[in-house]
Amino acid sequence: MAKSGQERSAKAAEKRIELDEKELRHRLRQGTRQKLEELMAWNEIEEISEAVQNLILNAHALGPTLSYQAIQSPRHKVQISENVARMFRNGSLSELKRDPGDEIIEPCS
Q1: Is 78 part of a structural domain of the chain?
Q2: Structural domain span for residue 55
Q3: 35 or 69, which is more confident
Q4: How many domains does the chain divide into?
Q5: Is 13 inside any structural domain?
Q6: Which tens digit of pLDDT belongs to each residue from 76-102?
Q7: Terminal CA-to-CA distance of the chain, rounded, Å?
Q8: pTM score
Q9: How many CA atoms lie within 13 A of 27 on its CB side?
Q10: Nearest one of 29, 45, 30, 76 to 58, comparing CA atoms
């Protein structure tokens, strides 16, 4: 006799507990989601969970040094143009001329 839906759900729940499975939920913005979809298409993967699991396993297999390069967040480098640096310097110098800040005020006795 076939198992009922309740019996199948109970068995699946027991298996998840036995294997110490944890459900992960993660929200992705469109650009990141598109990159994941491209990775999945390149590797003919249809399930997101399989793609994420493969990414984790492959990054871990790289070891501590190489996995750092693969998993680090892309950071934007701030570059200050010469014009902005010049404007800041000139503004700072004019402020120092206006108020050098080195006055000595003697306490009243």
Answers
A1: no
A2: 26-70
A3: 35
A4: 1
A5: no
A6: 888 999 999 999 999 998 988 888 777
A7: 102
A8: 0.55
A9: 1
A10: 45
Q: Quick one: tokens of 45?
A: 């993967």
pLDDT over 70 percentage in the chain: 97
Q: Is residue 53 part of a domain?
A: yes
* Residue 31 placed within a domain: yes
H helices of 20-107, in order, are 30-42, 48-61, 63-71, 82-98
The arithmetic mean of pLDDT across residues 16-40, rounded, is 91
Do 51 and 39 meet the contact criterion of CB atoms below 8 Å apart? yes
| Residue 44, token pair as written in the block | 């003919």
Residue 14, CA distances (Å) to 7, 17, 24, 55, 75 in order:
11, 5, 18, 27, 43
Residue with tokens 């010049």: 86
- How far apart CA 59 and CA 65 sit, in angstroms, is 10
